[in-house]
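Morning, I've got a small favour to ask if you have a moment. I owe you a coffee for this, so here goes:

…
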Amino acid sequence: MAKTYIATKGAPFKKVLAQKYGKELERISNLNNGQLDAKNVVETAKDKSSPLHDYFEWDTSKAAENFRVYQARLLINHITVIVKYNGSQRETKAFFSVNSTPDGEKMNKTYVTINRVLGEPELRSQVIKTALSEAEYWKSKYTQYVELGKIFNAIEQTKKKVKVIPLITVNKIKKVKNKKKKIAQVVSYH
């Protein structure tokens, strides 16, 4: 049975390469009793004739730098903070990925603190938009599991209810925000 492989949204390679990569990954899986592991993929891709060879960075110094940047992202994404909010405490991510120039043409991804996300409507809007996008991705990933139907429905209902703040209204909201007290207080990092 011929399969069609498709790149997911945000894939780190050109969409047209998904078929070539998918077929090779399946071939490697078949050689290993239906199991695929990252070490086997890299080992196979070392061969310059491998369809996966060009996907990887083989310059050791560049690869090392890229890996350190990846490690930094992992570090940033795995720190949580206890936040006091309306008399209770809640654990949440400490840093969120946002576009620091949302009205610009170029994406400029950076991380900001939870305090900035809670205090700046544009950043809050970006985080909510990202959360909804991640929920939609999760839903598409597991759509074949009918047992998760109630969760899928909840995602759809939430998408209908939540309105992401358009840029035009941000200036009006900032004026109101400046008159209010802080809505959250960071207690400790984990």
